[in-house]
Amino acid sequence: MDVSFLGGPRPQRGIGVVAPFDFALDRELWRWVPDEVSLHLTRTPYVPVEVSLDLARLVSEHETLHEAVLTLTAIAPEVVAYACTSGSFVGGIAGERAMCAAMTVAGALPSVTTSGALLEALKELDVSRVALVTPYTVSVTRALEEYVAEAGVTVSGCAYMGLTRHIWKVPYRDVAEMARKAVQDGADALFISCTNLPTYDVIPQLEAELRIPVISANQVTMWAALRQLGTRAVGPYQALIDPAARPGPVLPQMPGLPALPALPELPGEEQQQEGST
After folding, report:
1. What share of the chain is helix, strand, coil (3-state, %, to 5)?
2. Residues whose CB is less than 8 angstroms from the CB of residue 37 and which lie 6 or more positions away in sequence, other chains included
3. Rounded to a whole number, what is the largest CA-CA distance in the chain?
4. What is the mean pLDDT for each group of 10 consecutive residues in the chain (277 residues)?
5. What is the pTM of this model?
């Protein structure tokens, strides 16, 4: 069959992604990306440290970022994203801005980080009170609370899992359970932290249940990077991506309507991972 008339693949626009060595959710990032955009991932060097503030500092050192961004320049992406929440909030707002500057210098292109994207998303959604869910230990969770507070946003509630490894194995049902614990006292939105925590399918389910925008680390990272390209992230009925999904008047429950389907789980995962606290 002669396929020459097809003219070859469509031109692709690129996003370079720097992720920690233990990042396991490449496929989740792709789910927010439209067909005309490609992701090009590189990872920071392995260090034998469990998830902690020490690890966050190690994977966000400017020298490490410089080398990672340089590996992406041959592919000529239009923007580079640092996909790690703790690594980009551990130094506060000033530290996050310095990271973006260091990546921009290394690659001569615009840069975003997960935690910087979080603040952009909170502003976009006009959030003044946010509830937090994290898989982290208490010390890492407190550092996130301080970062959000530094931006002038009140943390209305928080739930954390106390994990130091294997965060990508947490099933959706546990994420949803923690979300319900965190949301209280009139939160304007819920943020689910950590790029290694699966969230894509749980976001629309939680938004329908909680009646507030639900945003996650991987979602805001892709949303912010794609905004740099002048295009939109894709996703099923998510408030950050689709203004039509943002909260409005709550409609009364109509009799006879089917219940929402059960939250899906990751294949083969049935138990919560044990944490250190």
Report:
1. 40, 15, 45
2. 12, 13, 14, 15, 226, 229, 231
3. 64
4. 66 95 97 96 95 96 95 94 98 98 95 98 97 98 98 97 96 97 92 98 96 98 97 93 77 46 47 37
5. 0.86
